[in-house]
Amino acid sequence: MSELNKIALKIITGGKGILAADESTGTMTKRLEAVKVNSNEENRLNFRKALFTSESMKKCIGGVILYDETIKQSSGSKTIPELITESGAIVGIKVDTGAKSLAGSNDEKITEGLDGLRERLKEYYKLGARFTKWRGVYSISDKYPSKLSIHSNAHALARYAALVQECGMVPIVEPEVLMDGNHSARVCYEKTSEVIKKCFEELIISKIDLTGVILKPNMILDGSGVTQKIDGEQVAQLTLKCLKESVPEEVPGIAFLSGGQGEIEATENLNLINKSNNTKFIMTYSYGRALQQSALKYWAKDINDISGTQKTFNHRANLCSLAAQGKWSKDLEIQS
Ligand code: 13P
Asked: Which CATH number is 3-333 given?
């Protein structure tokens, strides 16, 4: 077993998943302003620190993805990576520098951040990171995602993954097909399959050790504008079909993004996926909003009530962990 495979398995095994707390300062500011909290460095750290020191970290969170600002912050005598490592979770870092307009396409994006990446990775490794994230983003419409977007983003993801493995870290490969639009789940299945297959084609050309990669895909859903949506059982079946057909078997695990699903919806769908998981992959969560939303709302009402915030987060993390084992049920949603 390679060192990279060991790290990947430690992050996702035993009902553990990933807390995606890597919102850029711009995105975090939007999240905080939505709950009427001022977005300054202290507030961003205090909310995140409340999550990182929660009881459920030990049992439910195998890895935390940080943003550049947070990985360099400290709390008292400890750095944030030290605080996370103490809970038993592995420190991860978002290393892309965001999605920019893709030249040659009117409305699509290409993720940037390859220039100087080797040097930045060395710095993050020294700060304690052992895994990384890079997100490619694709939208669905009658002409998109274009071949250009599918090809360019896959190529960037592969170059990123090669540099990350060279530095001794596990790359999370995140091709996110957005839910915005009126497309059917069938179209989402077709486009997501094409996107993921292309990513692995490029990863293989770049000689990536696939046993040391975690795939972070979207689930197969109807577009957000569709009124009559497929049910969770169908989401699970289509998602499993897509991944079984598109992901090489050497990949140890898949950690879904929540991508705008509500907390309960994302948990229920993950549970259904695990209940009928007929693949070799571990299927877990790498949720941002679907792990943090309730805790953020609670905290915003009184930013000094850390224990109440942690209780809310623990509840959500426990339910996600149960879903990662196919043991969730709706009646557990009621918080005591
Ligand atoms: P969401 O779960 O909120 O989609 O965030 C996950 C993530 O890391 C997106 O890049």
From this structure: 3.20.20.70
Name the token pair of 267. 């948990």
Distance of alpha carbon 89 from alpha carbon 17, whole angstroms: 10
- Contact of 178 with 259, CB cutoff 8 Å: yes
| Protein residues with CB under 6 Å of any ligand 1 atom | 20, 135, 174, 257-259, 287-290
Distance 252 CA to ligand 1 centre (A): 20
Q: Which of 10, 108, 109, 174 is catalytic?
A: 174
Q: Is 166 among the residues known to form the active site? A: no
Q: How far apart are CA 86 and CA 64, in angstroms?
A: 12
3-state helix, strand and coil shares in percent for the chain, rounded to the nearest 5 = 50, 15, 35
Q: What pLDDT is recorded for position 263?
A: 98
How much distance in Å is there from the Cα of 133 to the middle of ligand 1?
11
Q: How far apart are CA 112 and CA 34, in angstroms?
A: 27
* Series of mean pLDDT values for 10-residue runs along the chain (336 residues): 96 98 98 98 98 98 99 97 98 98 97 98 98 98 97 98 98 98 98 98 98 99 98 98 98 98 98 97 98 98 98 98 98 89
The rounded Å distance from CA 77 to ligand 1 centre is 30
- Which residues have C-beta within 8 Å of that of residue 231, sequence separation ≥ 6? none
pLDDT of residue 1: 82
Ligand 1 atom at shortest distance from the alpha carbon of 290:
2
**Dihedral of alpha carbons 177, 179, 185, 186, sign:** negative
